[in-house]
Amino acid sequence: MARPCVRLCKAGADGSLQPTGLAFHGVPSGHEFNSFVLALYNAAGPGQSVDNDTQQRIEKLDADGGTTDVMVLVSLTCTMCPTTVLSAQRIASDNPKVKAEAYDISHFPELQSQYGAMSVPCIVVNKTDASGKTTQKVEFGKKTVPQMLDLIDEA
Predict the structure, then answer these.
(1) What is the CATH number of domain 18-43+55-154?
(2) By CB neighbour count within 10 A (0-12 exposed, 13-18 middle, 19+ buried), where does 126 fall?
(3) Are strands 17-25 and 6-11 parallel, antiparallel or unpaired?
(4) Which one of 28, 38, 54, 106 is CB 3.0 to 4.6 Å from 50, fit for a cystine?
(5) Residues 6+ apart with CB under 8 A from 40
């Protein structure tokens, strides 16, 4: 199913657009505007600093050849959602094997139904290993970068 979004890209070495793995499905406004601006900052350069241990954990994700897709279902009025979106997107901005996309559930009620999202943020982590086997974990609540890394590791 096509889902309109704002997808962040960078210029590749040859000048072509390269996806960063960061996207907002809906209009990043309300409480999500700050996470959108920080996503731009993180994707454009060194971004927000994280400690060395956290940076090493980010870089080691999917070192076995797998990939991770993080979907965060949000509401623009939620005060916990921006931290969770920012955490997932901070990880994705430093690891090309990780995608982190935020979905405004007011525009995607089918996702709210599919994942039983009675509250937000609703985090859906899909990990695919090198052999193509995919596992999924659904979790609710505010997550910092280290907590998001823990969640990804558990999936």
Answers:
(1) 3.40.30.80
(2) middle
(3) antiparallel
(4) 54
(5) 8
Of 118, 129, 10, nearest to 69 (Cα)?
129
Helix (H/G/I), strand (E/B), else coil: 138: strand
- The structure's pTM equals 0.92
Length in residues, the chain: 155
- Lowest model confidence (mean pLDDT) among 39-53, 112-126, 133-147: 39-53
**CA torsion through residues 26, 31, 33, 38, sign:** negative
**95-104 pLDDT, tens per residue?**
999 999 999 9
Helix (H) or strand (E) holding 122: strand 122-128
